[in-house]
Each structure stands twice: as structure tokens, then as C-alpha cells.
Amino acid sequence: MTRVVLVVPDAGPLISLAKAGSLDLLLTLRLPIYLVDQVRHEVTKDKARFPDAQAIDDWIKAHPARVHEFSTAVGKAAAARRQAGETRQPGQGEAAIAEFLSRLDEVSDDPDTPVLLLYEDSDVHKSRFVLPDTVHVVSTWGLLKGLERKRLIRSAQAVWDKIEAAGRSPSTVLTDDPGADASGGPTTW
After folding, report:
1. How is the chain split into domains, by residue range?
2. Dihedral of CA 62/95/105/186: which sign?
3. The domain 2-188 belongs to what CATH superfamily?
4. What is the phi/psi pair of residue 127, to 5°?
5. What are the backbone angles phi and psi of residue 57, rounded to the nearest 5°?
6. Which of 2, 89, 112, 136 has most Cβ atoms within 10 angstroms of its Cβ?
7. Does residue 136 contact residue 116 with C-beta atoms inside 8 Å?
8. pLDDT of 71 above 80
9. What are the C-alpha distances in Å from 21 to residues 26, 43, 63, 116, 159?
10. Stretch 116-144: mean pLDDT, rounded?
11. Across residues 86-93, what is the average pLDDT?
12. Measured at the alpha carbon of residue 73, what is the angle toward residues 6 and 126, in degrees to the nearest 5?
């Protein structure tokens, strides 16, 4: 089995883990973390109303060697439209993630590098965009259960309880679907 070498979180897991005070769980994997620019904007834009937005922004800034922002044409265009006064931009996060997935060769020397795609949004699970064969898909609940299985956390349920106690009700779908490495073998994280 080939070990996954990247983590690509979308907005949902970041918000949930921030609400639980558990963003550092992503660091326990010892993998580079790539945030798509539009997703970063979405999770940090309203710091005055959402304390978790400030927590996410602080966490990103505290780990510049591990957490990287990936610039996309979608994100740049959305930023330009925001500056022009457009406030509602549905679907831009998903479009930016799709662009990122089509440009994976820009984040690794090896185009066959497996990617761990962490999600909460059912759009990923419903495959609204094409996932390369090298993408290993895991839900937030799947991540927590995997961290528990690897003994990196004591209890996935304890973290989940903190998420729910903070008023968030993410999907309980347990997804941990391996991708394929260059030889066709399954990926692991």
C-alpha cells in the first residue's frame, strides 16, 4: 500500500474541528495540508460573527510550514467579483476544489502522488466533480475513526460530541475510500 502524502480539506471539516477546538488533529497526520484559496476565504471571512473563523485563521497562520494555500483561477475571479461588490457566490468552493484536483501535478514532483481529500459536504461524496484515481476520500467522521484506530486520539466520539455540543451537526457518513497508487494498489493514511 502507498501512503497518502497530501491532505486537502474543504470548509466543513475545518469548521467542525475548529468548533471542537481540535484543528491540531489534522497536524497529527504529519502531512502537508493544502487549502484551496476560495475555501480559505469561505471559512475565515466572517470573524466578527463566527469565532471559529478566527480560530481557523489563527491556526493557518500558526503553521505556515505545514498549511499551504493553493491559488486557483476560480478563487482569484471570486475575489475580484467580491471587490466589485458581489456578495453571493454559490458553488465557488466546489469549483475551486475541482480546479485544484485538475492541477495536482503542481503540488508534488510526482503526478501519481496520492491525495487525501477530507470532506463533509455531500457534494464530494455524490461526485459532483471528477476525482482522480489517486484520491483517497475520507469524511470527517471517517477521519476521526481512523485517528482513533491509529491511537492518535482516544475517542472519535468524544471529539464528535464536542462538535455537536458547539451546535454543529455534520454528516455521520463514515467514508474512508482508498484511491489507487501508481501500481494500482490501495492508498492508506
Report:
1. 2-188
2. positive
3. 5'-nuclease (3.40.50.1010)
4. 55, 55
5. -60, -45
6. 136
7. yes
8. yes
9. 12, 15, 16, 22, 9
10. 80
11. 84
12. 55
Return d(Cα 41, Cα 53) in angstroms, integer: 10
Reduced 3-state DSSP string for the chain: CEECCEEEECHHHHHHHHHCCCHHHHHHHCCCEEEEHHHHHHHHCCCCCCHHHHHHHHHHHHCCCCEEEECCHHHHHHHHHHHCCCCCCCCHHHHHHHHHHHCHHHCCCCCCCCEEEEECCHHHHCCCCCCCCCEEEEEHHHHHHHHHHCCCCCCHHHHHHHHHHCCCCCCCCCCEECCECCCCCEEEC
Q: Which residue has the higher pLDDT, 19 or 93?
A: 19
Nearest-angstrom CA–CA distance, 117 and 97: 10
